[in-house]
Amino acid sequence: MLNSIKMVDLYGQYLKIKEEIDQAISEVINSSAFINGKPVESFGNELAEYLDVKYVVTCANGTDALQIAYQALDLKPGDEVIMPAFNYVASAEAAALLGLKPVFLDVWEDSFNMNEKLIQDRITPATKAIVAVHLFGQSVNMEPVLDIARFFGLKVIEDNAQSLGTDYTFFNGNSQMTGTMGDINIHSFFPTKNLGCFGDGGAISTNDMDLAQKAKLISRHGQGQKYAYEMIGCNSRLDTLQAAILRVKLRNLDNYIQLRQEAGKYYDKLLEDLPKVIRPAENSFTHHTYNQYVIRIGERDRIKEMMHNSGVPSMVYYPSPLHLQKAYNYLGYRQGDFPVAEKLCREVLALPMHTELLKGEQDAVINELLKSINSL
After folding, report:
1. 43, 145, 244, 276: least surrounded by Cβ within 10 Å?
2. d(CA 263, CA 239)
């Protein structure tokens, strides 16, 4: 059993929709329209309908989507962009490549998401945008973020790479999906995401027609008409094959999320009597879609090694906060600047989580976790 447990089972997921996927791939090959084929536009329209937004612009990956979003907002070198210190590097990387200044802030200890109460103290005259990163499948508390942005005249970018299909509920009871509330928002279709393709893929969503048009121009070399370049752009297109695959998987996304949630709740049940393990929290304003199931535990590295030696996989998201990464030393941050993020990087451990996860496999994972804890 232990050696068969996978961190992510993409092949098992494929087998359940094999006929539809194979047909979709075959149709693209038969058409030979590998770039900007019909499935690209169709997928963009279908994702817009799923999200209930006006515009979706597809692109090559989530990191490109961030860069395109920054450019579409006309951010200039030296402009400051606020983002969490506990996060994947893409939001900071894309900003830095454009000469923008990443401004980090600390996160909530229970949800891992940015602490919206700290945003106002990070705002300066150079601040132009806030990147709200919905981490591991759970929404940032967006209403205060949007209120702060409106008050200070800032733009909001939602990084929805890990949380497609997650809902956020406002104080008045209305709800929206993550990736629909900001001025411009990004999505990733990396294979392990809630909606993953068979390679790289990304998208930008917005309700602003001008931003959508600019994002589309930027992603296609700044080209309005063939060989007519209206602005500096890049080459970032979603392959037709990936779009065809994503169309099939989008039809299954709600079911995938339900399976992840069932697995997450079962982990919760198995862990409820283990005081040394802190389970992932679920805030009242959102529901968790469990792109990752991330626990917190002391002596994390030793436990991870023991579980690995027993054949149980796990992952650390993330081993170091962004402000302590060598690439961002130039920003001048020091150890201790963001204590919650630094603490989380010592404690977080992601357990196997995917749509094909069996309860027996989860039992085995937690049994090995408990054995590792007891052997310390």
Report:
1. 276
2. 32
- Rounded to the nearest 10°, the torsion over CA 10, 55, 92, 178 is -70
The verdict on 20 and 82 lying in the same domain is: yes
**pLDDT-based confidence at 376, cuts 50/70/90?**
confident
Q: Is the pLDDT of residue 347 over 80?
A: yes
Question: Last residue of a domain, which of 201, 216, 250?
Answer: 250
Angstrom distance (rounded) from CA 325 to CA 237: 30
- Here the tokens at position 37 are 């084929």
pTM for this model (two decimals): 0.97
Instruction: Please compute Rg for the chain using Cα positions.
Output: 21
Which residue carries 């199931």 as its tokens?
293
Considering the domain architecture, whether residues 246 and 257 belong to the same structural domain is answered as no
Burial of 375 (0-12, 13-18, 19+ CB in 10 A): exposed
Reported as a single tens digit per residue, the pLDDT across 104-139 is 999 999 999 999 999 999 999 999 999 999 999 999
Domain boundary among 250, 281, 297: 250
Task: Identify whether 317 is preceded by a cis peptide bond (ω within 30 of 0).
Answer: no
